[in-house]
Amino acid sequence: MVDKELGDKIPTFDRAGGAQLDQSVSITNWSAFMGRSGTRKIGEIIAIILVAVVIIGGAEALLRGLAVPYYVMPPPSAIAVALYTDFEFIWPHLLHTLAELSAGYAVGAVVGLLLAAVITQFPFVEKIVAPYILMLVTMPMLALVPLLILRFGFGYEPRIIAVALASGPMVMINSATGFRRVDLAKIALARSFGASTMQIFLKIRVPMALPMIIVGLMIGAIFGLLTAVGAEMVGGGFGLGNRLTTFSSMIQMPQFFAVILILSLLGILIYVVFFLVGKKWASWQA
Amino acid sequence: MNVGQGASKIKLSVENASKSYDTRSGPLLAIEDFSMQVSDGEFVCVVGPSGCGKTTLLWSMAGLHSLSGGRITLDGEPVSGPHPQIGMVFQEANLLPWRNLTRNILLPSEIKRQKPDQQWIDHLLERVGLGGFGNKFPRELSGGMQQRASIVRALSFNPSVLLMDEPFGALDAFTRDEMNLLVEEIWLETRKTIVFITHNIAEAVFLSDRVYVMSARPGRLAKVFDIAYPRPRSLDMMATKELFDLVNEIKAEIEHRPAGPARPAARQNAGAAHG
Which residues of A touch B21 (CB under 8 A)? Predict the structure, then answer.
């Protein structure tokens, strides 16, 4: 059968090879932390440690020197002590947050990815649903949480739903950008060997979309984390977000900032994981 | 029409082919009433100016495009879609950047769900000088190496027809000469039927048994030239007066001017004419 997609298009060749757009997953230069060949320059390490000492030590000295009260901003040492002594009380909440995040993200990412894959195959459908997708992307899902709590109570459900609603559209819109990158020559290549539509999808379209899919998964995961914490702050008696409201209402600022520290480490962890995944699976684009 | 060696059977035949595309500004006629016949084991080139429908013609032969009129047959059967006996070599190699060389070359077998003939592939890789490069990614290879890999990919499933779409257009002149010698060697060895599209007249003359000249859009058949030089050919052949005149004659045909002594400027460029 003659290919429909190729049948009525003038053969054109993307001079840039179709995939040379700079859509690198990385937004920061991590080479200082992950030396390419395993060898980091001693000077780099010293500089990194020095800057950390200056910033953290400087904050410590400044806050103590100016006698800033703990309830305004505790010094780094107090935060570290709180993190250590209170960790056994904080970490069950960390598990709750991670559970909500994984459940909501799993649903959101899978649905977002599938929708992106399907919708981009039908440009007509895509045109019609585009405004609604944009609406989902820009809508503050946190605003829906009180409503969800009314319907589902103070348990996991409203949070998981909010995480799914926040991460899904992010995964979808980025993956769709990836799936839309069509290189006619590569499709013609596969078709010339007799590839079916499904084979072209799996062997050409998906690998071409992969760098953008990974970006979407990363942004979706980070949005999911933010939404999970936000939803926990709105209502319910557990989760890191709930700890934030509790500690701040009890003016336990070292504990409050310990939780903030955990949350940013979690965010960095998500970023690093996807950075490494991108390096492994989408490095051909670099 | 002149059909090379009258004795051998017709492998590929294009009969009164026309193709028009629907564009925003109305139908665009890319090819009009084009006919050609290629015998089994023959090497034929199609030359023409840029945008004259050469690629459209080749894609139709490969079954990637349907024609608006006329028909294309392979071994007497109409070509109605991608054919297992046809291997294609694309412009600018067209390797998949996320696959290494080995996996790029295995793509056809993978799609066809056939067990690859590893011995044949290894032989081809050695033949084109890519032995030991299997783990390299396309971006790590030079343009010439990429195109050699793409030739191995097209031959990997041993098709009887090779369709080549301006494969060396993006290469520098030296690499191009090298690739032309290699293609002739491979052809002499395998005796595939080859249709080779180019806008480089010298390349067409060097490679083929017969040159089909296409006019500017819409692509019509302007003239057919038989190239009766003995094989294997050498690059020295390209420096002879006789061949130079032939290249000029073909060039004149494309430009719709009477063949005469070329202007000095044209003379300089004729050897590496770019459409």
Answer: 8-10
Task: Summarize pLDDT for A136-148 with one digit per residue, the tens.
Answer: 888 888 889 999 9
Task: Specify the pLDDT at position A235.
Answer: 82
Nearest to B97 among A13, A19, A190 (CB): A19
The two beta strands, B43-47 and B69-74, are unpaired
Residue A32 CA to residue A63 CA, distance in Å, equals: 30
Q: Which residues of A touch B28 (CB under 8 A)?
A: 10
Do residue A110 and residue A250 come from a single domain? yes
Q: What is the distance, to the nearest Å, from the Cα of residue B167 to the centroid of all Cα atoms in its chain? A: 7
Provide DSSP, A122-173. -HHHHHHHHHHHHHHHHS-GGGGHHHHHHHH-SSHHHHHHHHHHHHHHHHHH
**What residues make up the domain containing A54?**
15-68
Rounded to an integer, what is the distance from CA A144 to the centroid of its chain?
A: 21
The Cα–Cα gap between A266 and A270 comes to 6
Domain boundary among A68, A95, A110: A68
- Answer yes or no: do B98 and A284 touch at CB < 8 A: yes
- Bridge-partner residues for B74, per DSSP? B12, B77
Give pLDDT tens digits for A209-243: 999 999 999 999 999 999 999 999 998 889 999 99
B107/A210 touch (CB, cutoff 8 Å), yes or no? no
Every domain of chain B and the residues it spans: 1-84+161-168+192-275, 86-158
pLDDT of res. A207: 93
Domain match, A99 and A158 both: yes
Search chain B and give the residue with CA nearest A204: B96
Kindly state whether residues A200 and A118 are assigned to the same domain: yes
A77 lies in some domain? no
Determine, for residues A284 and B110 on separate chains, whether the beta-carbon distance falls below 8 Å: no
| A141 and A47 belong to one structural domain | no
A128 occurs within a structural domain: yes
Q: Do A189 and B90 touch (CB under 8 A)?
A: yes
Same-domain check for residues A201 and A100 = yes
| Chain A residues close to B88, C-beta within 8 Å | 188-189, 192
Whether residue B65 lies within 8 A of chain A, CB to CB, comes out as: yes
| CATH code for the domain defined by B1-84+161-168+192-275 | 3.40.50.300
Instruction: Using a CB–CB cutoff of 8 Å, tell me whether B97 touches chain A.
Output: yes
Chain A contact for B98 (CB, 8 A cutoff): yes
Residue whose entry in the numeric block shows the structure tokens 């970006």: A215
Q: What is the CATH number of the domain that holds A104?
A: 1.10.3720.10
Considering the domain architecture, whether residues A93 and A229 belong to the same structural domain is answered as yes
B250: helix, coil or strand?
helix
Interface test with A, best of B61, B94, B105, B137 (most A CBs within 10 A): B94
Q: Same domain, yes or no, for A124 and A239?
A: yes
Instruction: Please check whether residue B21 touches A, CB under 8 A.
Output: yes
Integer Cα distance of A286 and B71 in angstroms: 44
Q: Note whether residue A1 is domain-resident.
A: no
pLDDT at res. B265: 47
Predicted model pTM = 0.80
